[in-house]
């Protein structure tokens, strides 16, 4: 199973302000949806609660330090650790696990995944949730795909 970080990041490395996204961009949301559809998506409890409901047609794996009720009918499962969530997705034979934030989760996973898909927004913005540093010695930018309002930078590990 391939683990991929997917994140939308401003030019000054902001991904959020408090519990929300500090911008609205339907094109990027559509890109997120089509990329992650029918795969497993892992996220922190704060990010999940900002969505209000599970992402449809995806396995939703939410990380929290306090136990919460799973809702198998909605494909929603909580885990006390990231490792347990990854094991769960592997057992279910998912080919791709998308790590979808937020800041705490990205920081713990930045060098533990196989690939980064960064939607680079075209602006700087105020916020207090950052994307972690992408180390040049670990990651190599392989391609950039241009969309109308953002571009997707794809990084693979150098080794
Ligand atoms: N631009 C983007 O692509 C993007 C994507 C996603 C989110 N965001 C933004 O990011 C922000 C949220 O990020 P955040 O850093 O505040 O929160 P977060 O990473 O979404 O969630 C943090 C929570 O996850 C749980 N957690 C994290 N690591 C854990 C671990 N190792 N073991 C157990 N539980 C763990 C804890 O939940 P408990 O408190 O329940 O213990 C913690 O409070 C929002 O502004 C959101 O809009 C942006």
Briefly say what this structure is:
With 159 residues, the chain is of the alpha/beta class. It has helices at residues 26-36, 45-51, 82-91, 103-109; strands at 2-9, 14-16, 40-44, 59-63, 76-79, 96-99, 115-121, 129-130, 139-146, 150-157. It has one domain: Dihydrofolate Reductase, subunit A (3-Layer(aba) Sandwich).
What is the topology, as strand order, of the major beta sheet? 5-4-3-6-1-7-10-9
Name the CATH class. Alpha Beta
| Alpha-carbon Rg, integer | 15 Å
Overall mean confidence score, pLDDT: 97
Total discrete domains:
1
> What portion of residues belong to β-strands?
25-35%
Any idea what the CATH architecture is? 3-Layer(aba) Sandwich
* Apparent shape: globular
Spans where pLDDT lies below 50 across 5 or more residues: none
CATH superfamily: Dihydrofolate Reductase, subunit A
- Bound ligands, named by name, code or SMILES: NADP nicotinamide-adenine-dinucleotide phosphate
Helical segment count: 4
Secondary structure tally: strands: 10
The helical percent reads 10-25%
Overall SS class = alpha/beta
Features:
159 residues, Dihydrofolate Reductase, subunit A, 8-stranded mixed beta sheet, alpha/beta, two-stranded antiparallel sheet, 10 strands, single chain, binds NADP nicotinamide-adenine-dinucleotide phosphate
């Amino acid at each position: 199973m391939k683990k991929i970080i997917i994140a939308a990041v401003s030019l000054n490395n902001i991904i959020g302000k408090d519990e929300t996204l500090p911008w609205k961009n339907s094109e990027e949301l559509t890109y997120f949806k089509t990329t992650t559809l029918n795969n497993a998506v892992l996220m922190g409890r704060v990010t999940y609660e900002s969505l209000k409901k599970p992402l449809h047609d995806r396995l939703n794996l939410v990380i929290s330090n306090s136990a919460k009720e799973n809702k198998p009918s909605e494909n929603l499962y909580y885990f006390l650790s990231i490792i347990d969530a990854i094991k769960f997705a592997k057992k279910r034979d998912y080919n791709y696990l998308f790590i979808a934030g937020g800041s705490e989760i990205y920081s713990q996973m930045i060098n533990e995944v196989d690939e980064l898909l960064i939607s680079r927004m075209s602006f700087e913005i105020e916020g207090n949730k950052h994307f972690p540093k992408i180390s040049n010695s670990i990651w190599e930018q392989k391609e950039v795909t241009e969309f109308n309002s953002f571009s997707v930078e794809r990084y693979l590990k150098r080794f």
